């Protein structure tokens, strides 16, 4: 057996050297691309999406596509960092799902800048303190993040990407609590972000009906508080458990098994076409019956899929609404551009938030 192991490991060593050589060749090409680009934007979300999609299609296994995606996102992250270092702002503190979304989209070779609020993420990118920002926009269980929608209306920034993150909530508690970390005994308080509490509403009703639910600014803050209080637990992600040294006493406690949060990437420009894109818009119609349906009719007439419609009060105090709409396609495709012109002509407010690749 020893002999066999040795032989196999020698083969792995030889392959690792080849992979390393190839990776460095790739890195040199990325550096050359960086020189060709000159002073223009280094981060090209459409190209990164194309690379990841192509490799998923080419993948013959046994590595699953998810692993291939992760590995190559890190390869591109490292290559990109050779061209220029990127700073990405997100809703902090460290250990939140927003940080996990940054890593999923940009890899580890970026500077991650935790911000205190969604407003602050927008401001940091607007002021140029961060090149990009990542903000949550909707959750499959809880719906829209209204603060993000309100800020999107005003910002000069563009949406240049989206990230889909499967959100798994854990119940965390100090490992040294009475009865050991296995039980729920003695939990009088549960801290978490209001959205996470809502996502685990049924589970908490069933397992901790008497515990007080205390909403705090973030899941990471909840974990920090639970680490100081033996009678408390926190609902948060696995990264928060690691960061605050807490035990996971119940796993995957979200009520919806497919619980997913969608994040948007904000930057100075939107993305070029990648072949599979979305466009986000905000518009408003006159305040009369049927006005919205008339306004969006051109999309279905042109066969353009409308995959999200969210309304927010226009803050005019007159029961007027603005509508956030995501459509299939890139704003530069002639078919899409023609319909956008038609819709713009009839809208009282019209803003293209950006076109970007569908999440990979
Ligand atoms: O193709 C480019 O424009 C590159 O800079 C190379 C590369 C890559 O490593 O593949 C790196 C950064 C970009 O965001 C996209 C792709």
From TrEMBL:
Residues 1-87 form the Chorismate mutase domain. The record marks 261 as: Essential for prephenate dehydratase activity. Pfam families: ACT (PF01842), CM_2 (PF01817), PDT (PF00800). GO terms for cellular component: cytoplasm. GO terms for biological process: chorismate metabolic process; L-phenylalanine biosynthetic process. InterPro entries: ACT-like_dom_sf, ACT_dom, Chor_mutase/pphenate_deHydtase, Chorismate_II_sf, CM_dom_sf, CM_II_prokaryot, G/b/e-P-prot_chorismate_mutase, Preph_deHydtase. It is found in: Cytoplasm. Pathway: Metabolic intermediate biosynthesis; prephenate biosynthesis; prephenate from chorismate: step 1/1; Amino-acid biosynthesis; L-phenylalanine biosynthesis; phenylpyruvate from prephenate: step 1/1. Residues 5-32 form a coiled coil. Keywords: Amino-acid biosynthesis, Aromatic amino acid biosynthesis, Coiled coil, Cytoplasm, Isomerase, Lyase, Multifunctional enzyme, Phenylalanine biosynthesis. One of its GO terms (molecular function) is prephenate dehydratase activity. Residues 280-357 form the ACT domain. Residues 87-268 form the Prephenate dehydratase domain. Catalyzes the Claisen rearrangement of chorismate to prephenate and the decarboxylation/dehydration of prephenate to phenylpyruvate. This is Bifunctional chorismate mutase/prephenate dehydratase.
